[in-house]
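Margin note from the TA: students keep mixing up input and output lines. Inputs are the sequences; the output is the structure of the whole complex. Example:
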Amino acid sequence: MKKSLLFDFTVNKESNTINVNREFAAPLDMVWDAWTKPEILDQWWAPKPWQAKTKSMDFKVGGMWLYAMVSPANEAHWCKADYQKIEEQKNYSLADAFCDENGNVNSDFPRSQWTNIFTGNTDTTTVNISIEYENLADLQQIIELGFKEGFSMGLENLDRYLEEQLTFANKTK
Amino acid sequence: METRRDIFQAIADPTRRAIITLIALQAMTPNAIAEHFDTTRQAVSKHLRILTECELVTQKQQGREIYYQLEINKMKQIDQWLEQFRKIWESRFTQLDHVLATMSAGRQAIKNNKK
């Protein structure tokens, strides 16, 4: 078995922030691309069984990523990210939102502030994600609403899915 | 001041998380808990008070000593709530691992062709 990769998930209630730390077994430039290129993001961004479908993406300061989270029943939830700061292969920050298919923000739902920091190690890359909400109720709302329908179903598939991934990882070794 | 009654308040502090881990194994007296930390006994008492207000620990009198014990069911609430969110990220990252493995294999193939 491969050495397990770092995965930290913490919630700081005082700052209404979620912190996620994850190590990936790939070089920095590759991991950076996976987070900043729509054709790669579409392959992994949506938790199964949802699918991410990019409508447009302009990865630059002031630019936007407009995409849909599509359920197995083909229902689309539109989301967007407004990029605010980018330091190539180091970090970027954005404001996320639910919106319509033209990117008009739906203000019924809370927005959050993201900062993603990339650190290249010898043969792995660590990504530190911090997601800040205005208050904890917002965070709770996001969790409860966002993935209610599709996600419980996803959980049932997850174990099987992980098994497949493991087999795949062993094969590629 | 508002009373602290929220489980997330309880786990927001690293010392409190350490206390939770400690008493998860067995109920302990405040003195025994304090021995595990470099901070003052008062600081540990304050953390225990917050944990009690959050109903994450309860006190139990045994002889002349007071023992603090963890309320496992309360902990489970945090777990259930966070687990959903954690799973989302796990699922994402497993997919990303897969994508990166494919990308690595592709890059390796290009390198080999050039040789």
